[in-house]
Each structure stands twice: as structure tokens, then as C-alpha cells.
Design a protein that fits this description.
Blueprint lengths: L5 H20 L9 E3 L4 E7 L2 E3 L2 E4 L4 E6 L8 E3 L15 E6 L4 E7 L6 E6 L1
Parallel strand pairs: 1-4, 2-5, 4-9
Antiparallel strand pairs: 2-3, 5-7, 6-8, 8-9
Pfam families: Copper-bind (PF00127)
Protein name: Copper-binding protein
GO molecular function: copper ion binding; electron transfer activity
Length: 125
């Protein structure tokens, strides 16, 4: 009996890796409550219970982030920090939404100008 060729072994190994990848993809993904990978062009950060949900998100250049003010009528203001790559400010809102499109790569820390304990980050890649 002849030993399998190197090429045949490569096909077997590649097939095995493909099969393992498919099987691994069937597992339930885990997602942190604090960090979410955004794969579409728009994502929403909900403001409720005096927090930003999620507090940290990753987006791509050109993506839009929409903050939904849903905190029982409390006033909030989404404001970029001085260290942020881009400057944005929602103004004071108690309901509705504010959207900002990120056009530069970088890290954008923000807070609520009214409640300094509320903080979030938009990471643009």
C-alpha cells in the first residue's frame, strides 16, 4: 500500500479544519453585556436606569451611532470627552434620539453632561 501524498494530506487537513469551523459556528456565541461588536452600519445605545447600554461599542468608519433617550423622562446629554477623536453633543434631551456618524478612526469617550457617573466609549476602526 502506498502512503498518501503530501497533497492528499493537505486536502484531508483542510477538510478537517473546515468541518471544525462549521461545528464551532453552531455553538451559542457569548456576548459581554458591556462590549458589543457592531457589524451593520447603524447601532443604538439605549439610555436607561442612569446608564448607557451597552457602555462600550465598536463600529467602523462611516457607521452611525444612535442614542435612544429612554430613562423615564430624565434629562441627559451625550457629550464627547476632550480626549475623544471626534466632537459630538446631543444637547439636553429627555426623550427621542440623537445620532452621530463617526468618520475618523479612534477612541471616543463620552459622558452625560448632567450625570458625570454615566460614561461610555465608541471605538472606531
Amino acid at each position: 500500500m502506498q502512503a498518501p501524498s503530501l497533497r492528499a494530506c493537505g486536502v484531508i487537513v483542510t477538510s478537517g479544519l473546515l468541518f471544525a469551523s462549521v461545528i464551532a459556528g453552531c455553538a451559542q456565541p457569548t456576548q459581554s453585556a458591556e462590549v458589543m461588536l457592531v457589524v451593520n452600519r447603524t447601532t443604538t445605545v439605549t439610555i436607561s436606569n442612569m446608564m448607557f447600554h451597552p457602555s462600550t461599542i465598536r463600529v467602523h468608519i462611516g457607521d452611525t451611532v444612535t442614542w435612544a433617550f429612554n430613562d423615564q423622562g430624565l434629562d441627559h446629554e451625550v457629550v464627547s470627552q476632550p480626549s475623544a477623536q471626534q466632537v459630538f453633543d446631543s444637547g439636553v434631551l429627555s426623550s427621542g434620539t440623537y445620532s452621530f456618524t463617526f468618520t475618523e478612526k479612534g477612541t471616543n469617550a463620552y459622558t452625560c453632561a448632567i450625570h458625570s457617573s454615566m460614561a461610555g466609549t465608541v471605538i472606531v476602526s
